[in-house]
Amino acid sequence: MKERISLKTARRIALAAQGFGEKRPAATVDRRYLRRFLGRNGLLQMDSVNVLVRAHYMPLYSRLGAYPLNLIDDNARGRKRMMFEYWAHEASLLPLELYPLMRWRMERAERGERVYGGLVRYGRENADYIAKVLKEISERGPLAASDFDGERGQGGWWGWSDVKHALEWLFWTGRVTTAERRPSFERVYDVPERVLPASVLSAPVPTADDAIRELLGIAARALGVATASDLRDYFRLPPEDVKARLPEMIEAGEVLPVKVEGWSQQAYLHKGARVPRKIEAQALLSPFDPLVWERSRAERLFDFRYRIEIYTPAEKRVHGYYVLPFLLGEAITARVDLKADRQAGVLRVMASHREAEAPPHVAEALATELSDVAAWLGLSDIEVAHMGELAPALSREIRTSPVSSSPA
Predict the structure, then answer these.
(1) I need a labelling partner for 188 at 20 to 30 A (CA). Which of 59, 161, 195, 274 fits?
(2) Residue 117 burial (10 A CB sphere; 0-12, 13-18, 19+)
(3) What are phi and psi for residue 326, nearest 5 degrees?
(4) d(CA 175, CA 171)
(5) What is the share, in percent, of the chain residues with pLDDT greater than 90?
(6) Can you give the pLDDT at residue 62?
(7) Residue from 336, 340, 307 nearest 324 by CA
(8) In this model, does residue 143 exceed pLDDT 50?
(9) Per DSSP, which regions of 135-294 are E strands?
(10) What letter does residue 111 receive in the DSSP assignment?
């Protein structure tokens, strides 16, 4: 690989690294495919918004197509689990093999380093209360915050705010972990000894330096070509640690410094990066998909400026509430604001917008993808609202493209 690469080549490398260089399988997507996805991508980011489908379900679909909706949940709980939950790229599901690589973060949290929000002070000032919460889980667990006595925000030994703070501190420090998520998405906590396999808990724990270097390697493989900032963001690693570890990775030949056309920052190419001659992807992407979750990277790679507008007042939104980019070929060609109206059995396209690189057949391709997504989610109809410049063409295509039957 030359030390200078074109933007088009960088796109293909990034798409292939994320699993978009392969055809969706004809076979049923099962544990084998999930394990392969985790081995390549390293994690699934979680988010509570359920307007379409929760964020951690979507990346697997984007790459592999329809799969049984219980596949991820079944493998994130119980004795046969292959994933655990922890703070990685925000709250995430990670393969069990990465548990030892997260111990340094748990240890730093316990020392009060880089813990979210006001938990540092809370942990320092409420050690006795936290110990009582841990004892309650140890004796009664698994428990969710709502299982503790007392009403929300009201008195009682287990004040809602206090118990939530205590549980978050215990979770950050690894004293408790997630046994499962309830249908409401509420986290159910238990002690690691009752949740994780003994082989995982007894595995050798690398030093922080070694763990961070290995996590950077996973990020480099998952991204293909990336800046130091991109690599750091994947697992939300401390900048000073990344700065110290990158030269070691270069010296070991794990990454190669390269210059990407149009990028002002130094880029790094993973040693195993593939460069397909062509990418023929067709996928809707969650706002929390690794391909686009780092917004400046999405802009550098695809000239795609993307902002999630959930917290923007309705009258000020440009593209919609829960907007999914549409990847077609090697470009992001459209974005659609989607809502699953489960009660009515309808996939509602609240708005649809064409991007600059959209080919003439983008509406047809998007209609096909929407039909497949609706079938996967068990929705029998699609309705397109007249908002966005792509809406008229998409509406015409939807009328001639009925919802398909999902193979899942």
Answers:
(1) 59
(2) exposed
(3) -115, 115
(4) 6
(5) 85
(6) 98
(7) 336
(8) yes
(9) 143-144, 177-181, 187-190, 225-227, 255-260, 267-270, 281-284
(10) T
For residues 136 and 176, the answer to whether their CB atoms sit within 8 Å is: no
Closest CA to 168 of 196, 189, 148: 189
Are 228 and 246 contacting, i.e. CB atoms less than 8 angstroms apart? yes
b vs e for 178-211, b when ≥16 Cβ sit within 10 Å of the residue's Cβ? bbbbeeeeebbbbbeeebbeeebeeeebeebeeb
Q: What is the DSSP string of 281-295?
A: EEEE--TT-TTTSSH
Three-state DSSP at 74 gives helix
pLDDT digits (tens, 9 = 90+) for 50-106: 999 999 999 999 999 999 999 999 999 998 999 999 999 999 999 999 999 999 999
HEC string of 292-327?
CCCHHHHHHHHCCCCCCCCCCCHHHCCCCCCEEEEE
- Written as six digits, the tokens of 137 are 């889980």
The full DSSP string for 40-61 is HH--EE-----SSS-GGGHHHH
Residues 6+ away with beta carbon under 8 Å from 182:
144, 188
In degrees and rounded to multiples of 5, residue 293 shows phi and psi of -65, -25
Strand partners, 187: 181
Give the Cβ contact number of residue 2 at 10 Å.
10
- The one-character DSSP state at 72 is H
Question: 377 is written with which tokens?
Answer: 């989610």
Closest to 20 measured CA to CA, from 326, 322, 375, 360: 326
Taking the C-alpha atoms of 214, 216, 222 and 223 in order, what is their torsion angle to the nearest 10 degrees? -160
Token pair recorded at residue 386: 């007249």
Q: DSSP labels for 345-405?
A: TEEEEEEEEE-TT--TTHHHHHHHHHHHHHHHTT--EEEE-S-STTHHHHHHHHHTS----
